[in-house]
Amino acid sequence: ECFYEPKDEL
Amino acid sequence: MNIFRLAGDMTHLMSVIVLLLKIHTIKSCAGISLKTQELYALVFATRYLDIFTDFISLYNTIMKLIFLASSFSIVWYMRQHKIVRRSYDKDQDTFRHLFLILPCLLLALFINEKFTFKEVMWTFSLFLEAVAILPQLVLLQRTRNIDNLTGQYVFLLGAYRALYILNWIYRYFTEPHYVHWITWISGLVQTLLYADFFYYYFNSWKNNVKLQLPA
B177 vs A3: CB contact, 8 Å cut-off? Predict the structure, then answer.
């Protein structure tokens, strides 16, 4: 499981 | 991408367009805080460090480029443009950048998701964005007479923040592992800073009178 998702918000 | 997030991004974009329109067509930046604009330029420069390393979507990259380009060009207009810069209320816009930048940097060094340069800078940008509107609010309070475009600019920025909160609530319930305390708390603080302005903005709108803040 990836808790470190890419930051997709601006 | 949910509807709140998209609407939030669009109001954010509209706020920038309203501001550029004011500066570009009326050739005036009266009532706009250069301090706030410089802080926003710093916010975007430190937040979007990943622009060339992590590809998320074309939408994401284009929006980042727009926010970077617009924030730096607004600063350029206010500082360098020979007509626009004359309308800048320099004597009223006295807020010190460092009072906001230093605490945010210190806080980001201690509170962050991971102690790396990129993460600390990202966290710093979130904290700084939360308070970057303060010089603008102080300037509004001082000048009191607010023209329509400046009022709309601040209103759109506040709306963007409010919509982002709805977006987080939506994502929290629809996406697994969607927990971002740092983003949420700084975003909430940022939105609360607009509460007072919103109150007067809606009152003036409801009563159909010109927006004026109390002394």
Answer: yes
